[in-house]
Fold:
Amino acid sequence: MNKTFHSISRGRPRSTAARQAILDTALQITKRDGFSALTIEGIAREAGVGKPTIYRWWQSKGMIVFEALQQQAEKELPLPENMSLRKGLLTFLQALFTTLNTGIGDIVRSLMAEAQHDPVFADLFRAQFISIRRQPLLQLLHDGITRGDLPADTNIEVLADLIYGAMWYRLLAQHAPLDADFAHAIVKLLLPASPS
Amino acid sequence: MNKTFHSISRGRPRSTAARQAILDTALQITKRDGFSALTIEGIAREAGVGKPTIYRWWQSKGMIVFEALQQQAEKELPLPENMSLRKGLLTFLQALFTTLNTGIGDIVRSLMAEAQHDPVFADLFRAQFISIRRQPLLQLLHDGITRGDLPADTNIEVLADLIYGAMWYRLLAQHAPLDADFAHAIVKLLLPASPS
Amino acid sequence: MNKTFHSISRGRPRSTAARQAILDTALQITKRDGFSALTIEGIAREAGVGKPTIYRWWQSKGMIVFEALQQQAEKELPLPENMSLRKGLLTFLQALFTTLNTGIGDIVRSLMAEAQHDPVFADLFRAQFISIRRQPLLQLLHDGITRGDLPADTNIEVLADLIYGAMWYRLLAQHAPLDADFAHAIVKLLLPASPS
Amino acid sequence: MNKTFHSISRGRPRSTAARQAILDTALQITKRDGFSALTIEGIAREAGVGKPTIYRWWQSKGMIVFEALQQQAEKELPLPENMSLRKGLLTFLQALFTTLNTGIGDIVRSLMAEAQHDPVFADLFRAQFISIRRQPLLQLLHDGITRGDLPADTNIEVLADLIYGAMWYRLLAQHAPLDADFAHAIVKLLLPASPS
DNA sequence: TATTAAGCGAGACGGTACGTCTTGTCTTGGA
DNA sequence: TCCAAGACAAGACGTACCGTCTCGCTTAATA
Structure:
């Protein structure tokens, strides 16, 4: 009963200082020189950390940057509430585009690129980024149905694909900006019938 | 007059055999081992070609694969004609998805990834791939307006972003397949009001 | 003055089990994989011992193997007695060569090599191995002088250098074997005039 | 007959500058910091040369230093001629010891050590160093037989082992110097009967 | 009998070097 | 002038050990 609970982990505990230095440095280099200029060697050098320490905890530079990004962007996009779907979607898109235009967008682009030739990272990225970011949007659309702003039989998964797809397309192909006009145009096209 | 006609450029002319061998080998390696396993070194080795010969004519491995892809896929997607926009768009999407599911999709994914960390290639890719592929779709949508299947004030550029965006999103994030159901769902969502 | 006199060693005494496991494992790895495949890391792993435990008690892997070797070869070469110098030297050399041909030779070679780039170990090796092994031979030669088998003014230190030198030379250069023929030939050359 | 002889090697020829820089740097580092402080990485760094260039031409750092040593010590020990064996051997040993005491000795020691845990290098070292250096001595001893300074049935191979062995023993064990006294003592012990 | 200091295993840490790989350039001789 | 061949400087890759450190747990002598 009063028997002490045995600590599971033995040995020297993981250094949080090293961990944080690695994450910070990785993000800093990525922002400064771009993701393709990021090397494990470079992180180790600038973070003042041994290479094996990096390899011990991360499988690839993609995962480091991803974790750093998640950590920094702890604050989730606030889900617009108590708005019409029209208003809510517009708010959602504008907040999304604003965030992406602050430099975060370049990192996100790089991570999507990385996922294309690293299947392990692709799985992580899909599960921890793509899927998670879809949830608020799906919730928004679902509420739209509940509220009667959308037909009950609307395929909201595909609708989310159209919305997020448009964002990714412009983010990656860079043929046009992610601006307020784009947000308005998307809303207008997807939620056309604005019944009085 | 038995003097040989000197071509404008002197010296040995460019070897078409070498050129073709490079393109073929690059495509073959990409299909076999994936784009990230493709190296200039490897192309030179397998094509029996000197590395400088490759560097003389292409700036990056992205451009080689891109050129090889363009060459192979000479035959453009045939623009559906004399159909309703609904029918036409569905046909267009199904043909597109079918093509992407044959292995071409993986190469296209890799090229989009490559464009994310090679600005020079990104420009080429945007101009010679993204933009060009948009034209038939824009034409289709434009015809839709003409035919009265779409309101005259429809922003067809953004509509094209929604359509192609959905494709790229699923192609890159791999969270759901590019299949006939998806094509149908897109059409249903974007061209909802089917009068008469 | 009431200050207590602290015993020199307080706390938990050194674990003999760990000590012996380290020595045994080191010798075993050296015999199995060779001295250059021996690592502190490897000893710790196979002996089920922490690395600091090794570093606490030994300065280098050379010293571990040396101690293990000394421990195993506790039984010294028996000094031949009551023989002529000729007979005694021959017996001595044959016993020496036989020992070296059992696998001990490889370890001894490695230790001599180690001494070449570790001055601390070199001092230990010279004092505890080289010098100690010379004593029986010097005794033998000294007895030879006493018995009249050697001239009284013979420089037995240099004579010992010639004898042990020949052994080391063949052991290290491996250009010829350490066999009975070699022992006979050495004796014949160094103690030529066998007067009646 | 007048058919041109085709050059066997195509491509860019080996850079003699790089080759020499590597050899020079390797020798310099070895002399400055010792052989065990010599690393391929360090040679590349100081010589301003790529690592693969080193690995392309040498299998190990032992071989680099060995080649550098051979190149520097092009001038062979001059074989003493027209001397009695006594005089000749003394001259030979004194020249040998003098050379070894100039810093060459430390390098030679390291190479012998290296040969103990690198079988490939050991073969090279035995063939290109040990064996080659034995030849002049064997010649000297052979001439001694011819001249009548040695019995005709003298086993000169073993005699050479005794002589070179004594040198190696003192060089490696460092228990006594390689000086003129040692040379004299060796000669006195091995060539005792100096008739008239 | 309780305290306590040292030893113990485990294992993370900052480093360094390894040997390999690819990059983009340069330098040949042959076509 | 272009080509193949291939050497070059550069530098990142991921791994293996190094020697040090920090843990929590024994363990036996001391008080």
Summary: Chain A has two domains: 3-61, 77-190. Residues 3-61 of chain A form a domain with the Arc Repressor Mutant, subunit A fold (CATH 1.10.10.60). Residues 1-7 of chain A have pLDDT under 50 and may be disordered.
